[in-house]
Model the fold of this input.
Amino acid sequence: MMPPMKYMAFAFLMIFALSGCGGGTSAPSSGLTPFPSDNGPGDEKLIEAVTAYVKSVNAPPNSDYDFVRVDLNNDGKRDAIVLFKLPHTHWCGWDGCGMAIFKASAKKFTPLSTVSNVRGPIFVSKTGNSAWRDIIIRVSGANMPDKNVILKNNGSGYPSSPLLAETHYIPVTSTNSDKFFR
Done:
């Protein structure tokens, strides 16, 4: 049994240690979650948009995917990059899986681009063109040497196939970018 003074000191330390675990807010480091709710639609609206997209392309309704929310066009609203993974036979092949990019507006998400042959990790550059950030992905498994390529938005969307995209020669780890889908 602990003496009363040691017990009180132990209890104080536990309360102090646990008080740092909850509450509070922190600023997003790169346009990622958390974001104030007035900066576009929430994740539930993205899931609704992805479900509608899956239906519109006649994909299996049980499609599985991962997504990340990031402001791609610097409008203060977190757009979405969705990387499909299952069923593998529908979304993926020997050269990668399908990816969809959704633009966020005030209340909904709209499909912007569909990109094939994608493998993680995916890097979103801090720079870009047409007011949209560049997306850097790894191309491998195709009948060409493995390489990193830059997907550039042309003003209406990102290219659907990365196989002919510009090669990114600088090591991705030394670029000013955010890394997703490790």
Remarks:
- DSSP finds three helices and nine strands in the chain.
- Strands lie at 64-70, 79-86, 92-93, 96-104, 109-129, 132-139, 147-151, 166-167, 177-180.
- The two ends are 49 Å apart (CA to CA).
- The longest helix spans residues 4-19.
